[in-house]
Design a protein that fits this description.
Elements (H helix, E strand, L loop, with lengths): L5 H13 L3 H12 L13 E7 L17 H4 L4 E3 L6 E3 L3 H5 L4 E7 L6 H10 L21 H8 L9 E4 L24 E2 L1 E3 L4 E3 L11 H19 L6 H17 L2 H7 L6 H7 L21 H14 L4 E6 L13 H26 L6 E6 L3 E2 L11 E2 L3 E7 L6 E3 L1 E2 L6 E3 L4 H11 L7 E3 L5 E3 L12
Parallel strand pairs: 1-9, 1-10, 4-14, 5-6, 5-9
Antiparallel strand pairs: 2-3, 4-13, 7-8, 10-13, 11-12, 15-16, 17-18
Helix pairs in contact: 1-7, 2-8, 7-8, 11-12
Amino acid sequence: MQGLGRRQFIKTVCPAAMGLNLGGLLRAQSARAALAKGPRPTGKIKSCILIFYYGGPSHLDTYDLKPDASSEIRGEFKPIATSAPGVHISEHLPRMARVMHKVALIRSMHHANRSHDSASIETLTGRPPIGGDRELFNATPEFFPSYGGTLSYLWRAKGYEISHAALPWVFHNVVDQPCQGGGFLGRAYDPFRITGDAVRLNYGSEMLKRPPDLTMERIEVRLGLLRRFDGQAARRIAQTPLMDSLDTYQKKAVRLLASDSVARALDIERESEQLRDRYGRGNEKPLSTGVGAENAYGRNLRGQNLLLARRLVEAGVPFVNVYDFKQQGQNWDSHTKNFEQHRDFLLPPADQALSVLIDDLDQRGLLDTTLVVGLGEFGRTPKINGVAGRDHWPDCYSVVLAGGGVKGGYVHGASDKFGAYPDRDGVTPADLAATIFWRFGLDPASEIHDELGRPYPIAEGKPIRDLFV
């Protein structure tokens, strides 16, 4: 070992000692944490669950119907009354209609990106994509951090076991695509990735896996070897903040590997069969036998995802991204058969799961301190196309919010009579970003810095204060 430099030793011995690269991730995090302490949250909420309906749900067929428009715009669905006086939503959202007094709507969200990738970047970072409006996930690395990445960085000194979780898959299955990770803050602030088994309906994380024969006792022995090497290296290598904090974060990696709380949170089978059924049981037609089709119990993964999100909030995770990306073999990109897809495959499980999540959080006393946000990267065209579909439409669409102090039954903004453009109180993704950070007690003008030291506010918009009591 005499000729082995410290950097090479860390690269080769630590991953073997951990059984995975978790220690490296935490060491990278410690390097930044040693330089400065970020602001601590003092706001009204402790957690945020952001449900991202990838593909773009049709606002005109969910939360902003236009029954008085011509048939080529209004479509097949009818509005129904809700528990909030004067607020009407789609007939295929009957469960959400019953909890609308706990829900706020934004009907004037808009931006300029018509491609999925660029629209997703602006939606999940609050910033327009640097590469412009195009499909660019395979060509452009992430620059701006996601909301969860920013929070993880700002709260790096708080000692969360997990500060940002993403489930059940990051979309396109790559976390370092331009909106889901730490961006210029570094890979240390990527989310804790949770995978789901669509057939068994259980969850796990590659980050917590280790070889079966690598016991915690063996890990402790290897860490002892590393500590002895550290003692020798310290006498001949100048100390740096990174070196000073290595031991702390090695211990944190071991704690996370051995954490009962993380393992318990991921063990969704601890929940009662009755509650699991409430979150989603077979009221929709399975589109295929592929990813996310109903399992033998008749449940769907869409519902179980939100149940797991609630469990993570209960375990103290501040930010949870739920990526509704490839469940049931179908996402929300309804260029063809828009009404059939929404009616039969998409809306029933989404309606059931989101309404039960809201009630479940409320019954457990978590709704006031948990902000739930549901949205896609854009809406759909007012005019129905020639194959009974609706195409991409970022010029105006809807966002659903619950908990976190929202005004129940409140509608912010309005679209025009065609659902095409904001008619009143337009909202941008930057405003939504500022709102989320503000609800956590963070000043949207607080600065973060890229690798060149250039400052950026954590959000460039203004909080939508009217949404909250």
